[in-house]
Write a structure and sequence with these properties.
It is built from 17 helices and six strands. By secondary structure, the protein is mostly helical.
């Protein structure tokens, strides 16, 4: 079973780094090349497949009943929809999360403890890290401090994936990466047809990295998925431990107006109504609730839903 699953995940990970979403993954669309016991698996029927940009969401309902991801039916999906279609307890649970933000990617699945030691599996480059890095470099200094605190709570298993992704970017002698490292890694992974489009789109979105370096510790803060950690049973422990670290290293007194500026909120948002629980009344510092919300990168739109 692991042999088959590894082949499926490798195909899906390869498609996703090229910007292709299959949209109809099911047993009938995987065929063995021969009747030999060790025959290679082939993926067929790309008739419903489509190209998707890094931050694009698709909205047409396609796929087969019983295999289609929930978000497809809600007309808002991307490459995560393919992972729903792929079928250990924790492994399956993390593949079948209804929230696509909490669902493992194909590359992450290949690094899962249940499967990663099978026949020296090589972890592929994951397009998710580029989305997360993009969000990180555009974040406020306060949110970056919160993410750095969270990254210090990661377990050995959780760091395995991040170490693998960082290694694929081939850091320099000082253990740092730049935009050039990302460019070279993407060029190695991309097909000829995708090098001038897909690669360029990702590089443009990460242009802020052009004049700076990122070491492994900052990479972990940038590439950690808060939503995926939140799906774990140990999320509360992660969050509490991270808040304790943040209290020592990054928390400070902050007024609501400054916090609103950090979050990029518009003047139309009733700040004192929305953000009053984010700040401790005793010392004016960020509360635990505010810390957790900050980790998620709350926007004006998401805050308006809380009112």
């Amino acid at each position: 079973a692991k042999s088959v699953l590894v082949q499926i995940l490798n195909v899906v990970a390869f498609c996703h780094i090229q910007g292709v979403v299959h949209r109809d993954l099911k047993p009938e669309n995987f065929l063995f090349t021969s009747k030999d016991e060790n025959s290679q698996l082939k993926t067929i029927d790309f008739g419903l497949s489509d190209f998707v940009k890094p931050d694009e969401r698709l909205n047409d309902i396609v796929g087969s009943a019983y295999y289609v991801a929930p978000e497809v039916l809600h007309r808002c999906y991307s490459t995560e929809a393919d992972v729903w279609s792929i079928e250990a307890m924790d492994f399956v649970k993390r593949l079948l999360s209804k929230d696509p933000r909490r669902r493992m990617t194909a590359a992450q699945a290949l690094g899962h403890p249940w499967i990663r030691n099978y026949n020296d599996i090589k972890m592929p480059l994951d397009v998710l890290i580029f989305r997360l890095i993009k969000a990180y470099i555009r974040s406020s200094s306060l949110r970056k401090a919160a993410l750095k605190a969270l990254s210090k709570t990661l377990t050995v298993d959780e760091l395995f994936y991040l170490k693998g992704q960082f290694s694929l970017l081939e850091p320099d002698r000082n253990g740092c990466i730049t935009l050039d490292n990302i460019r070279m890694a993407l060029t190695r992974e991309a097909t000829d047809a995708m090098k001038e489009t897909r690669v360029q789109e990702i590089l443009v979105s990460l242009s802020a990295l052009q004049y700076r370096r990122m070491d492994f510790h900052e990479f972990c803060a940038a590439a950690v998925s808060v939503h995926q950690l939140e799906a774990l049973d140990r999320w509360e422990q992660h969050a509490r431990s991270a808040y304790e670290i943040f209290e020592k290293d990054g928390n400070r007194a902050i007024v609501i107006d400054e916090l609103a500026s950090e979050l990029g909120l518009s003047p139309s948002v009733p700040l004192h109504v929305v953000l009053q629980d984010w700040i401790r009344h005793t010392d004016g510092k960020l509360s635990f609730l505010g810390f957790v919300k900050l980790l998620h990168g709350m926007s004006s739109r998401s805050l308006s839903k809380m009112r």
